[in-house]
Amino acid sequence: MNDKLIIAGKSYSSRLLVGTGKYKDFTETRAALDASGAEIVTVAIRRTNLGQNANEPNLLDAVPPSKFTYLPNTAGCYTADDAVRTLRLARELLDGHGLVKLEVLGDPQSLYPNVIETIAAAKTLVAEGFQVMVYTSDDPIVAKQLEDIGCVAIMPLASLIGSGMGILNPWNLQLVMERVKVPVIVDAGVGTASDAAIAMELGCHGVLMNTAIAGAKDPVLMASAMKKGVEAGREAFLAGRMPKKLYSASPSSPTAGIISSTRS
Questions:
Q1: Distance in angstroms (rounded) separating the CA atoms of residues 145 and 209
Q2: Distance of alpha carbon 47 from alpha carbon 62, whole angstroms
Q3: Phi, psi at 174, each rounded to 5°
Q4: In angstroms, rounded to a whole number, what is the distance separating the alpha carbons of residues 33 and 221?
Q5: CA distance 226 to 244
Q6: Tens-digit pLDDT profile for residues 160-218
Q7: pLDDT one-digit tens code per residue, 28-83
Q8: Is 190:207 a contact under the CB 8 Å cutoff?
Q9: With a threshold of 0.70, does the pTM exceed it?
């Protein structure tokens, strides 16, 4: 299918975005990314060596930017100022790269987004020419505000980061999709392939995950499962499911013209 995900004017064949953290080493990271088919990969600038530490393994060697689109993020930031500084650093480390993922967290226990600080950071980053994909709550009003600021993708949580609880409020996700025109990508809370499929069946444009793959017993196999889940969910959404019916059974095969078993 010629069904591309378009973000900031660039098209991608895969609708699965994958993080690069929490793997045992960069070799496993690359194997999982390859199995997932992901083209966009997130990188926690505060936690990942991109050349800052000359004597440590460099992610750029294992996951070359020539093959993957890097999405530097602000994981671990709790204020707008910290987030902006982090992404300015990312732009320097990645030779002027402008596509970024903004997340400003509210507290270290829940990792729930602080939408007030997120909005403040988004305004600054967009004004400085960044293409901002933004992690936020599933509040449709906030989502619209972030789109109006100029964010290129809205990324509402399905449930808390790293929880694996799946999609807890599909109704709000649908409200967000109805409210904004930029891509809506579920970010946080996916635990297994069926969660990814449900997100796509709802009409989300993509799914971003890290812990669901890296935290699996077999990350590479789970990455492959997630790839299939996203693809199946997208195809089901495009196909259009049959309507649900309560006590309205109809046979799969027609009954007209069947041979009667009644003897004359």
A1: 24
A2: 16
A3: -65, -35
A4: 11
A5: 26
A6: 988 888 999 899 999 999 999 999 999 998 999 999 999 999 999 999 999 999 999 99
A7: 999 999 999 999 999 988 778 776 677 788 888 889 988 999 999 999 999 999 99
A8: yes
A9: yes
- Expressed in angstroms, the distance from the first to the final Cα of the chain is 55
Strands 10-12 and 5-7: antiparallel
Q: How many CB atoms lie within 10 A of CB 3?
A: 11
- DSSP-derived letter for residue 113 is B
Question: Under a CB-based contact definition with an 8 Å cutoff, are residues 207 and 196 in contact?
Answer: yes
Q: How many CA atoms lie within 13 A of 94 on its CB side?
A: 28
Q: Which residue has the tokens 């226990």?
A: 109
Contact 44, 15 (CB under 8 A): no
Instruction: For residues 143 and 177, give the distance between their C-alpha atoms in angstroms, rounded to a whole number.
Output: 9
- Residues annotated as catalytic are 101
